[in-house]
Write a structure and sequence with these properties.
This protein is mainly alpha-helical. Helices cover about 60% and strands about 5% of the residues. It contains five helices and two strands. α1 packs across α3 (about 50-60) and α2 (about 35-45) crosses α3 (about 50-60).
């Protein structure tokens, strides 16, 4: 998946979000070694110092840890990973409901639309 970075927000924050998302979604598994700073920076087309800052922040959060001579690894802390996954899901749900409110839908109407969509998908009928 290409790195889609915009100039409206600090790049290192966007890098952190992308790496966090990749970890939470299973692109990287607990205990996996992540690519080097240089490789990640090349892939994202950013300065290695910017990538280093993002990775250092992810280390501070406990999501990554360093082995002095062998690189950075994803935490094995399943509880932390689960909490981050739930927090991210809650954030997406909150944003979705805010958007639905802006469209004029109540929570009840939104939930009914979700239930109806799920029923159609379960029946293999998306229209």
């Amino acid at each position: 998946m290409p790195w889609e970075l915009d100039n409206d927000r600090p790049i290192y924050l966007q890098l952190m979000e992308r790496i966090r998302h990749d970890i939470i979604s299973g692109v990287y598994r607990p205990g996996d070694k992540i690519p080097s700073v240089r490789d990640l920076a090349l892939d994202a087309a950013v300065n290695p110092n910017t990538m280093q800052k993002a990775l250092a922040e992810l280390e501070r959060s406990g999501l990554l840890y360093s082995q002095r001579t062998s690189g950075r690894y994803i935490t094995d802390d399943e509880k932390l990973l689960r909490k981050m996954k739930m927090d991210l899901a809650s954030e997406h749900i909150h944003q979705f409901f805010e958007q639905m409110h802006h469209l004029g839908f109540s929570d009840e109407e939104t939930l009914e639309m979700i239930h109806e969509t799920l029923r159609r998908e379960q029946n293999g009928n998306d229209s």
